[in-house]
Amino acid sequence: MDKSVLLILLVFLLATFGFVVTGERGERADFVLVNGAEPQTLDPAIMTGVIEGRIADALFEGLTVPDPKTLAPLPGVAERWTTSPDGLTYRFFLRKTQWTNGDPVTAHDFVYSWRRALAPATAAEYAYMLYHVENGEEYNKGKIADPAQVGVRALDDSTLEVKLRQPTAFFLGLTSFSTLLPVHRQCVEQHGDAWTRPENIVTNGPFALAEWQIGRHIRVRRNPAYRDAGAVSLRTMDFLAVESVNTAFNLYLSGEADFVANVPPHLRPILQGRPDYHTGTYLGTYYFLFNVRRPPFNDIRVRKAFSMAVDKQEIVKFITKGGEAPATSFVPAGMPGYTPIAGLPFDLDRARKLFAEAGYPDGKGFPKVAFLYNTSEANREIAEVVQEMFRKGLNVTVELVNQEWKVYLANTKEGNYEMARASWIGDYVDPNTFLDMWVTGGGNNRAGWSHPGYDSLIRRAAVEMDPAQRMELFRRAERILIEGEAAILPLYHYVSTEMYRPEVEGIWPNIRSVHPMTRVRVAGR
Amino acid sequence: MIRTIVRRLLWLIPVLFIIATLSFILPRTVPGGPFTGEKELPPAVKANLEKKYHLDKPVVLNVAALKEGRLLRAFTDTQYFVYMKSLLRGDLGPSFKYKDRSVNEIIARSLPVSLSLGTMAMTFALLVGISAGVAAAVRKNSWVDYSAMGLAMTGVCIPNFILGLLLLILFSFDLGWLPPGGWGGVRYMLMPAVVLGAPYAAYVARLTRGSMLEVIGQDYIRTAKAKGLSPRAVVLRHALRNGMVPVVAFLGPAMAGILTGSLVVEKIFAIPGIGSHFVNGALNRDYTLVMGTVLVYSALLVLFNLAADVAQTFIDPRVRLE
C-alpha cells in the first residue's frame, strides 16, 4: 500500500494505544455494586446524595449504626449512651477505636467534626441535620461566632455530651447520618480540599479507601484497624460510577456487577417475580405542588376539586407499574408508628360540586393553567395522564410545560408556576422530615402555604415526649395540610427497586434502603 | 510552511480568548445556578458557598468600584478577571460540582480516555472505509460495489445507540465475548469504537469510492496499466495516494466530530470520557467545567484541522498551505 497512507494509519494506531494510559483493571473485587453517577465528594460533612452516602457508610463510622432491618440505632463508635429525663442531654460513651493511621478516635473528633459541619465557611447543605443541637442553627447562620457555644462537647477523651434545643425523638437516628460522621482533624487541616484523596484520607470505618478513579470506580478494602474487622466478610468492594440505569442493568446481567440500586423503570413489571429482584416501600413521596399564593389555586375549593379529580390507582397500575402504593397522605405509609390519614378520595361528583361552588360550574371561566415538570419520561407520562383526568373530570385545560431540572427548580422556588410535580425523600425515619417543611416561611415550602394551626401543631410535636401523642399531633397536622387545605396533592409513595445475586447475603429491605456493608457476604468468595 | 503552521498556531490564542469569554458569559445567563438544589440552603451557607467560588463578585464589571472612580478595580474585582487570570496560569479552576477535584484534574483524567477511544474509532473507520471504498471503485457496479455502498448507507443512517444495542445483544449477551460496559483494556474499547466509528467508516467509504473512480479515469493510470503493471500495483501504489486527498481533508473535522459526539457512546458503555463532563457540566451549571471542556474541544478542533491540512500537503504536492 502507498507509504503515506500507511503512515497515517500507523499514526492512528499508535495514538490509540499510546493514549491508553488508564491501564488494565485489577482483579475483580469480592463485591461490585453499581452506585450511580460519579460521587460529588467523599467529605461526609458536605455530601448530599445517596450515592455519596453509601461510600461514606463504608469508610466512616458514627456514634451509632443503623440496624440493617429496622434502621434502629445500634452502638457504633459509641458503646452506650444515656438520655436525661427531659430529653435534652445525651451522653455517649465511646469505645477505644482507631483511625486508619493509628490515632485513637476520641470525643474531640466528634466535637471538631460537628462544629466543622455547622461552620458557615464549610457551607454544608445538610448542616440543618445539626440544628437540633443547641446553638447549631445560630452558629450555622452566622448569628453566633464562637463554635464553642454549640451544644456538643467532650467531657473527656471517651465521653461526648450533646445538648439539644428541644427533646428530639429521632435524634439518635440522626447520629449515623453522613453529616454527623467523624473526620480526622489533622488530615483535614493539613490537606484542605485534597484530604479525601486515597493517599491522604484517614477514616475509621469497616473499609478503607484503596483507589479512586474518576468516572470508573471507587475501590475500598477491609480496614484491619476497624473495631470489628473480624466480622467483615468482604475483602474488597467496588463502587462503580455508571450514569445510565440501562448500562447498570447490563453490567448486572452480564455478571460484571453484583448489585444495582435502580432498575430501568419500564422493566419493573417484567422483573417482578425474579428471586434476585427486591422491591419494597421507600421513604419518599411523589406529589403535586399548588401555588397557593395566586389565583386560581389560592382558593381551597379549587385545590380540593383538583385533588379529588385524580385517580391515583390508575396511575400506579398503568403508568408507573412498579408496585407503588397510591398516597392518601404525604408521610409514606411505611413510616413506623404512624397511621396514614384518610386523605381526599377520588370523587368526581364532589370535585365538580366544589368546582362549581368556587365559581367554575362545569369548568366555565377557569383560566388555563400551566403544569410544570422536569424532564423525564416518567414525569411526562404522568403529566399527560393527569392532564386528561382534569379535562375529563373538570373540563379544564391544563398546559404541560417541560423544563430542564435546574430551570424547573428555580421556577418552583420563585413561585413561577401554578401547578408542578415534585418529590420528597425523607432524611430520617420520623414524620417530622416530611411535615416540618410546610411551616410558614419554611425554606422548602415551595407552595408558599401558611397556616398558624399547622405551625403550632408542628412546634408542639417537636417538644412532645410521649411517642403516641406525638404521632397524633402529626396526624392532626397532616389532616390540615391534605384534607382541610389541600395545599399539596400526594400521588404515590416510592418503591425501592434493587437487584442482587442470590449468593449475596446480609442485605435486608428497609424503608431507606440503607444496607450496612459490614454484614454483607458473598457465598463462594 | 513552518511559518504558516506557526501563524495558524498563533491565531489559536485570540480564538481561545473569545471562546473563553463567550463560554464564561453564556452559561451565567441561563436560569438556575451551580448551587440550585432540591433542598433550600440557608442564606448564610449560600453566601459562603458563593464567596468560596467568587460568585459573590460582579460578573464582568464592578459598578460599585466604577462609581467610586476606581477604574482599575472596576475591571479586576470581577468574576471574569479572576477567572481569566487563573486561565493564563493554566488553572481552569475548581469544579463546582465535584468538590474534591479541580477541572484540570477532571479533564486530565478523562481526555486521554476519549482520545484513545476516538483514535481507535477513527482507525476502524479508515481501515474499513478505505478498503470498502477501494474495492467498490475497482469493481464498480458489481455486487461488491452495491453491497459495500448499501452497507455504507446503513452505517450513516442507523442511530448510534441502535447499533450499540445490537452489538451489545450479540457480543455481550448472546456470545458473552465482550463486557457490556466499563473501561480498562482493549476488550472494553472494541464495541464503543465500532459504534463511534461506523458512520465515519460509511462516509469514508463513499468518499473513497467517488475519489478513486475519478482518479482511475485519469491518463497516468492508463499509462501505468499500459506499462504492464499489475492491477494491484496500479491501484495501491498509484491511484490510492491521490484518491486519499478528500479523505484526509475530511479527517480534520471528523476527528473533532468523533470527540464531541462521544457522549452517547460514553453513556451507553459507561466510559469515563470527557463527553459526559461536557454535557453534565452544562446541566449542573458547573461553570468552570463547562468552560474547561469547551476550551479543550476548541483547541483540539483547531489542532486537528491544522494537522489534516499539513497531511494534505504531503499527500498531494499540488496542495499548498497558505
Short description:
Chain A is an alpha+beta fold and 525 residues long.
Question: What's the SSE blueprint?
Answer:
The complex is a heterodimer of chains A (525) and B (322).
Chain A lengths: L2 H16 L12 E6 L13 H10 L4 E3 L6 E3 L2 E6 L5 E6 L2 E2 L5 E2 L1 H12 L17 H5 L11 E5 L2 E5 L7 H4 L10 H7 L15 E7 L3 E6 L13 E6 L3 H9 L5 E2 L7 H4 L5 E14 L9 H8 L4 H9 L4 E2 L21 H10 L11 E6 L2 H18 L3 E6 L1 H10 L4 E7 L6 H4 L16 H12 L3 H18 L3 E13 L3 E2 L15 E2 L3
Parallel strand pairs in A: 1-12, 1-13, 16-17, 16-18
Antiparallel strand pairs in A: 2-3, 4-5, 5-9, 6-7, 8-9, 10-11, 11-12, 13-19, 14-18, 14-19, 15-19, 20-21
Helix pairs in contact in A: 9-11, 15-16
Chain B lengths: L1 H27 L14 H10 L10 H5 L3 H6 L2 H10 L14 H36 L4 H15 L2 H15 L11 H31 L2 H9 L3 H13 L1 H16 L2 H6 L5 H10 L3 H29 L7
Helix pairs in contact in B: 1-15, 6-7, 6-9, 6-12, 6-15, 7-9, 8-9, 9-11, 9-12, 12-15, 14-15
What does this structure look like?
The complex is a heterodimer of chains A (525) and B (322). With 525 residues, chain A is of the alpha+beta class. Chain A is 30% helix and 21% strand. The longest helix of chain A is centred in the C-terminal third of the chain and has 18 residues. The mean pLDDT of chain A is 92. Chain B is flat and about 85 Å long. Chain B is 74% helix and 0% strand. The mean pLDDT of chain B is 87. Chains A and B meet through helix 1, helix 7 and helix 13 of A and helix 2, helix 6, helix 8, helix 11 and helix 14 of B.
